[in-house]
Design brief:
single chain; 189 residues; 5-stranded parallel sheet; binds adenosine monophosphate
Length: 189
């Protein structure tokens, strides 16, 4: 089974490229952000806790995310693979993912790091705010999310590199070209 991590700053296109991979390879897709937004809508206990963090641009505590992730993953084990989108976001989460997979005889197949300049990220997120109306897509919260990304999540790139699973893709203005590069990489694992 393929276990693909899609990784990048807010607005880097994780959702878009995940959708292309789901289309091409029939993978299941876990977006921790989407799961949390569903929990908020459903008014669950996790949703109520998550809401405060999300609106502030902060990360939800690791233990809550890790428990949730394992139970969602276990519903997807009979497919060709899983895309982890928005997880892991901290070193603690990355180690927990590795352990969770190891316990199931699995491993991270590849991490796709999406590299996009900050100007483009901001433009995309402000655009998305107009279309989707996400509570955390306003300029102040976006700045906080960038800051959280650079301090807590970006250091993971070195961790993935050391694990020997890092693959990097730089956006140079052509989304379709990037999709093809990513598909080629995943086809080769
Ligand atoms: P996303 O949709 O991936 O941009 O996530 C939106 C928000 O959900 C983030 O800013 C965090 O508050 C929260 N979130 C999503 N995934 C995680 C995670 N792996 N760890 C902690 N918080 C998360």
């Amino acid at each position: 089974m393929d276990n693909i991590v899609i990784f990048g700053a807010p607005g880097s296109g994780k959702g878009t490229y995940s959708a292309a991979l789901v289309d091409k390879f029939g993978y299941n897709h876990i977006s921790t952000g989407d799961v949390l937004r569903e929990e908020i809508k459903a008014g669950t206990e996790l949703g109520m806790i998550a809401e405060r963090y999300i609106e502030n641009g902060q990360l939800i505590p690791d233990d809550l995310i890790i428990d949730m992730l394992a139970s969602v993953y276990d519903t997807m084990r009979d497919g060709p693979g899983v895309i982890f989108d928005g997880f892991p976001r901290t070193i603690v989460q990355a180690k927990a993912l590795k352990e969770m997979l190891r316990e199931r005889g699995e491993r991270i197949s590849v991490t796709l790091n999406l590299i996009v300049s900050e100007d483009i990220l901001m433009e995309r997120l402000l655009n998305r705010a107009k279309i989707e109306g996400r509570a955390d897509d306003n300029e102040v919260t976006i700045r906080k999310r960038f800051n959280v990304y650079y301090t807590q999540t970006h250091p993971l790139i070195e961790w993935f590199r050391k694990e020997g699973v890092l693959s990097e893709f730089t956006f140079r203005g052509d989304k379709d070209k990037m999709i093809n590069e990513i598909i080629d990489k995943v086809a080769s694992i």
